[in-house]
Structure formats: C-alpha cells, structure tokens
Specification:
This protein has two helices and no strands. The longest helix has 46 residues. The radius of gyration is 24 Å and the shape is elongated. The model has no long low-confidence stretch (mean pLDDT 86). The chain has 69 residues and is mostly helical. It has one domain.
Length: 69
C-alpha cells in the first residue's frame, strides 16, 4: 500500500505534468501561428515581386551543381 508521501508525490508529479503539457501546447500554438504568419508574408512577397526559380535558390544557397536526391 502506498504511503502518504508517495501519494502526495504522485499528485505533485501529475500536477507538474499537466502544467508542462498546457505550457507546451501554448508554445506550440504560438509557434504555429508565427510560422503561418511568416509563410503568408512569403506568399505575398512572391505574388508582388515574383517567385524564385529552383536554380536561383540553389545559386543563392551555394548548392548549384550538387545532385538532387
């Protein structure tokens, strides 16, 4: 049979786990919102100023001439 201290420890662990889960969920939601905002910014920029070709991107990133997987 668990002792009183073990029962209290188990409750404390459950509370901490619940708090961490809520904190992680809110961090994830914030990160998703930020990512979506940045993607939208990129989409608008592409529509207004034109899109890059794959060759332009490879050249800009120094990947020109590397083989594709």
């Amino acid at each position: 049979m668990p002792t009183m201290n073990q029962a209290i420890d188990t409750r404390n662990q459950a509370a901490v786990l619940k708090e961490e889960t809520v904190d992680n969920a809110s961090k994830r939601a914030w990160a998703e919102a930020r990512l979506m905002a940045e993607l939208e910014k990129g989409r608008r920029s592409g529509e207004e100023h034109g899109w890059f070709t794959l060759d332009e991107i490879e050249e800009e990133l120094g990947l020109k001439g590397l083989t594709h997987a």
